[in-house]
Amino acid sequence: MAADDKSRQRRSFKTRLMVLVALAVVLPALFTCLILGIQLNRQARSLFANGLEANLETFALVLQDAERNVSEGLTRMASDNTLQVTLDLGMTSQLNKYINAQREVLGIAFVAVYNADSRNIAYSGIDKDAVPGQWRFTGNGEPSGADCVVAREQAEQLIRCNGTVYLVSAGPVLRVRDSSLGDAGHDQGPQLLGYLLGGLPVANSALIGELLSRRILHPLIWAGNDLIYSNVADDASLKTAPFDGQAYEYSIEQTAYLGVAKSLRIGSQSLQYGVIAPLAALQETLWRSLLTVAGIGFFVVIVTLVAISIRATRLLRPIEQLRLGAARIGGGDLAQRISVDSGDEFEALADQFNDMTGRLQESYADLEKKVEDRTRQLEVASQHKSQFLANMSHELRTPLNAIIGYSEILQEDVADLGQENLVLDLKKIESSGRHLLGLINDILDLSKIEAGKMDVFIEDVEIAPLLEEVRAIIVPMAEKNSNKIEFRLADDLGTMRTDRTKLKQSLLNIFSNGSKFTQNGRLTLVAERFETDRPMLRFAISDTGIGMTEEQLGRLFQAFSQAEASTTKKYGGTGLGLAITRNFCQMLGGDVTVASKPGEGSTFTITLPDSPGTPAQVKPADVPHSSGEADDGPTVLVVDDDPAARDLLAANLKGKGYRLVHAANGEEALSLARAIRPDAITLDVMMPKPDGWEVLSALKADADLRDIPVVIVTVLSDRGIGLSLGAVDVVTKPVDRAHLTTLIHRLVRRDGPVLLVEDDAGARDMIRHTIEKMGLPVAEAVDGRQALAWLADNNAPAVILLDLMMPEMDGFEVLDALAAHPGWREIPVIVITAKQLTAAERERLLGQARKVIAKGSALRLDIAAAIGEAVRRRPARPPVGASA
């Protein structure tokens, strides 16, 4: 049985190989036949069309000959003296005999003679139905409009009479006056005797017979758009044939024809004529050619298959040996060796197999040990991952716990001070902090959700108060985009058993998402109960935002995915909120659905059971702890992630009358700065995100915090970066206690005027006016030498405003002099310049000046802000033990 299977497999490979080769030969042959057929068809049609065009030229000559016969014959008759005399004498019988003889000679179908009053007096012709009186004359150029109406004195006309189109010619019969003939007044001009009219049907038997005799088998004649002659079926496609001389194909009674048509001018009118011929003979010729090529190709395929069959049989033998050997090796027989003696690539392949088998045999002994080692490594990696998540969770929870703790302390403080109106705001801060702490916990536990290890804590939840908490958090967010919030709550909401944190986060995620994509609109929450097989609650949140397409809805709840890539750039977001929301709802026994239309907004609907199951024990939340000295001295906010460093700074400043507040990270520092408005801040640089530089930038970007002096405390030597970001000084670790105490005291209380050093009187007046509006005294100097003289005669100023470009002694020289004098080097200096500073000059200034301001349209605002940073005017509560 196994041998039969192998034989079938071998034959199957051979068959596939032959089929592949056959296709490789047949497909190009078929393609060649196709191209050849197209080319032959094109050339044959071209030759066929050329023949039709030649027939068309012959057709034109026959029509033109008939036209000349009618026109020239009647012209000769009209000038014949016999006709003139007979017409003049009114001999009707003689006229009939004359015109009948002339008509037969000229080959004209009919001839009629009219007198000067356009009355028919003689007629001869084959048109028995056309009574002579039916042919009526009208003036030259006048429209006929009626049947059998001819224009007088016009040689070439196409006239329809009794349903037949005629080629006619009309002209006057004139006799020149001659005195020898008894005419009186021969100089009066020729005499009109009457009119001569003649013609023949356009599609007359003589013309058609001549065309057929010239091998024009299917002539076509149109008058206007009417087909007046065709010896094939009166097909609709022929009635609208184009008359541009190009060849077109027609299908008449399921027979293919090729035809060509043109227009011929008959006087002021046009006559269309054409020829067609069946394509059957052409198609038969093409088929014969294609069958010949196909026969040759078939013969080539047969010969090729026979050759390939012979070659495949020889090719499969070493392949079968390789297959059998590989199967034994794959079955675990690493001692197996493959023997192929073909002397070609198959033998080389067999040698490679044998070499590979030997290497596998050598390494197999160590394989089990490697697997055990890798298993242990994976276990260690899993432990590291768990440890990392635990550490990261701790690092992120720490600042939030501090924020919550300080908000609780502030609630107690304002309550003690009797400022009860602030308690509600502080409670909102605490509630938001606790919610943010819960969000971070859940996001960090996203891996637990995917692993099915996320805990659900079921408790009794008052729905209305929970929704009010959601409203308090979402209203400020909605107001940023000028959105309105509307809650429609049923009266019977009551309580439900669910995970309060996960429900609240789910609602906030949807509200946040809707507010982000809605501007100047409305967000509406409808909360109600309903019944299925058990009591359920529905929370439907609608917005009037940008909406989503069906394609965007399909990937809406995927983690780290936005509805569209471009929305991330415009609106921001991580794409986690809705994915977490769906997971939470499903864990709580419900789900979330969405309905949306582009431009009309979206509606997210959360459906949850009133009680999902057996409640779990709710774990008590950790209460954050915060501490700090509280006295009546100036407040210093100490920011450092290292508790030992914070304690050291506190020890340095302890006993100097300062109230110290600690912050363990940048987020906590920003929150405390907004809450307590310290008099000064010491800031570490090397902290987890946000680091000290980001905190310093955030402080200077906040209108309420930018005036607080910041001292950078760091092991780095980045004084220039600190000063450029707005720090008033940079202290390098380890901190010198005396220097730090002096610096803090100087920052929280500095007296003295502002020394303005500017050589331009106009600029000096403007700056002085700005400073005086701040309530600060001003001293002025017009150059560097005068400024140094003022400093020598007076107490140190609160700050120096220094122009760089001045005569005699410029600003750089003044800075050097200040730095060299022990009593002046601590004076804050703000440089004002219109000079484009080089990199070297800016580097030099960063080490000596507090801030550099460019002269321009915002000069007054920049000066006011800079002075506000450098000069601190505090209430009279000097630090204990410090000298002013």
Q: What would you note in describing this structure?
A:
The protein is of the alpha/beta class and 884 residues long. The chain has 24 helices and 29 strands. A five-stranded antiparallel beta sheet has the order 2-1-7-6-5. A five-stranded antiparallel beta sheet has the order 9-8-12-11-10. Helix 6 (280-330) crosses helix 7 and helix 7 packs parallel to helix 16 (666-676). The radius of gyration is 55 Å and the shape is elongated. It starts with a helix and ends in a 14-residue tail after the last helix.
Summarize the SSE layout with pairings:
Layout: H1 2-78, H2 81-89, H3 92-106, E1 110-115, E2 120-125, E3 136-138, E4 149-151, E5 157-161, E6 164-175, E7 191-201, H4 205-213, E8 219-223, E9 226-230, H5 236-239, E10 248-252, E11 255-266, E12 269-278, H6 280-330, H7 345-416, H8 423-444, H9 446-451, E13 459-462, H10 463-480, E14 484-489, E15 495-498, H11 500-516, E16 522-531, E17 535-543, H12 550-554, H13 565-571, H14 577-587, E18 591-597, E19 601-609, E20 635-639, H15 643-653, E21 659-663, H16 666-676, E22 680-684, H17 692-701, E23 710-714, H18 719-724, E24 729-732, H19 737-748, E25 754-757, H20 761-773, E26 778-781, H21 784-793, E27 799-803, H22 811-820, E28 829-833, H23 839-846, E29 851-854, H24 859-870
Parallel strand pairs: 3-4, 14-16, 20-21, 20-22, 22-23, 23-24, 25-26, 25-27, 27-28, 28-29
Antiparallel strand pairs: 1-2, 1-7, 5-6, 6-7, 8-9, 8-12, 10-11, 11-12, 13-15, 16-17, 17-19, 18-19
Helix pairs in contact: 1-6, 2-3, 6-7, 7-8, 7-16, 8-11, 10-11, 11-14, 16-17, 20-24, 21-22
